[in-house]
Amino acid sequence: MTDKNNVPNVSQKRVKLRRIGVFTSGGDAPGMNAAIRAVTRAAIANKLKVVGIRRGYQGMIEGDFIPLKSADVSGIIQLGGTILKTARSAEFRTPEGREKAWLQLQKADIDAVVVIGGDGSFTGALTMSQEYNISFVGIPGTIDNDMYGTDYTIGYETALNTVVCAVDKIRDTAVSHGRIFLVEVMGREAGLLALNSGIACGAEVILIPESKEQHDELKRFLDKGYKNKERSGIVIVAEGDEPGGALKIAEAVGRDHPDLDVRVSILGHIQRGGSPTANDRINATRMGIAAVDALLDDQKSVMIGLDNGKIVQVPFNKAVKLNHSIDTGLLDIQKMLSM
Ligand code: ATP
């Protein structure tokens, strides 16, 4: 429940909960700690006890639980990673694993759970809530920003800025040596990080899994560069654009244009870490409070999202089954400006 300014009304008494769990799952993302802090303090403000579940679903199965008090989440809003650790759990994908997790939650008197993660984590929560009487509310935490129903996922903006800073530096070398750099950024199935970082860096070409036509753009750029003897440029490659990623594309470019000095830079895990941006902290804080609010409102299996700046609730089954579509208009902008 929210007031007219869209500020969750945390003081109103609703369903009777005593103890909630909170955990992070899947890939870590900057801002997860800000979300843990907000969930913990909003719950305490509503007289709930809070249990931190460590190491995602694997920790849930093993009963790796710690009580969270207000002081335990002090000084973490600015930290990357997750103080609760995260994991990927094959065991939780099995009915036996989920039964163990359920028994652990019961043993710890946990009535409802906030899960901070991506679509895999929400699929797991949805499956378990269909099998057992337990409410899950999700907070989207993934640097891919690929969840349907929310404009932002926690960590995306920080990762975007990390990529932009790195590519700006790579460009200095590209220009100085007259090289073409293929810079691979994260995004196995989602190219939003690649697309927006490419726009922000003025990349000459952006290759994303959502648009195969971009390979024609790469060909045009390389042919033009060859003829004009203009031999430097940045090509952003989403890791999921092609099996083998930027390395494989560089091999093909090297074969077709042996005269060009082509290099590959794979940004890798630096994209996940670091202190969250102000916006990631603010979004994580708002979503954390809204998640507790949703549980108190007896919501089950919903993800908290942001739609045009407003907090919304999106059913898990929609959030995980539908894709966050790419604004292909951004590709047109990039093409027009990289003449
Ligand atoms: P990221 O976007 O960073 O990859 P994610 O939440 O999508 O985050 P996954 O590795 O896909 O990360 O999922 C996290 C965990 O959720 C898995 O390790 C598994 O324990 C659980 N999970 C995922 N899919 C299912 C499923 N279909 N059934 C049960 N549990 C699942």
TrEMBL record:
Catalyzes the phosphorylation of D-fructose 6-phosphate to fructose 1,6-bisphosphate by ATP, the first committing step of glycolysis. It comes from Chlorobium limicola (strain DSM 245 / NBRC 103803 / 6330). Substrate binds at residues 142-144, 179, 186-188, 239, 263, 269-272. Its EC number is 2.7.1.11. It comes from the Bacteria. The active site is at 144 (proton acceptor). One of its GO terms (biological process) is fructose 6-phosphate metabolic process. The lineage of its organism: Bacteria, Pseudomonadati, Chlorobiota, Chlorobiia, Chlorobiales. Residues 19-295 form the Phosphofructokinase domain. Keywords: Allosteric enzyme, ATP-binding, Cytoplasm, Glycolysis, Kinase, Magnesium, Metal-binding, Nucleotide-binding, Transferase. Transmembrane segments: none annotated. It catalyses: beta-D-fructose 6-phosphate + ATP = beta-D-fructose 1,6-bisphosphate + ADP + H(+). Its cofactor is Mg(2+). InterPro entries: ATP_PFK, ATP_PFK_prok-type, PFKA_ATP_prok, Phosphofructokinase_CS, Phosphofructokinase_dom, PKF_sf. Pathway: Carbohydrate degradation; glycolysis; D-glyceraldehyde 3-phosphate and glycerone phosphate from D-glucose: step 3/4. This is ATP-dependent 6-phosphofructokinase. ADP binds at residues 37-41, 171, 202-204. GO terms for molecular function: 6-phosphofructokinase activity; AMP binding; ATP binding; fructose-6-phosphate binding; identical protein binding; metal ion binding; monosaccharide binding. It is an enzyme of class 2 (transferase). Homotetramer. Allosterically activated by ADP and other diphosphonucleosides, and allosterically inhibited by phosphoenolpyruvate. GO terms for cellular component: 6-phosphofructokinase complex. It is found in: Cytoplasm. Mg(2+) binds at residue 119. Belongs to the phosphofructokinase type A (PFKA) family. ATP-dependent PFK group I subfamily. Prokaryotic clade 'B1' sub-subfamily. ATP binds at residues 27, 88-89, 118-121.
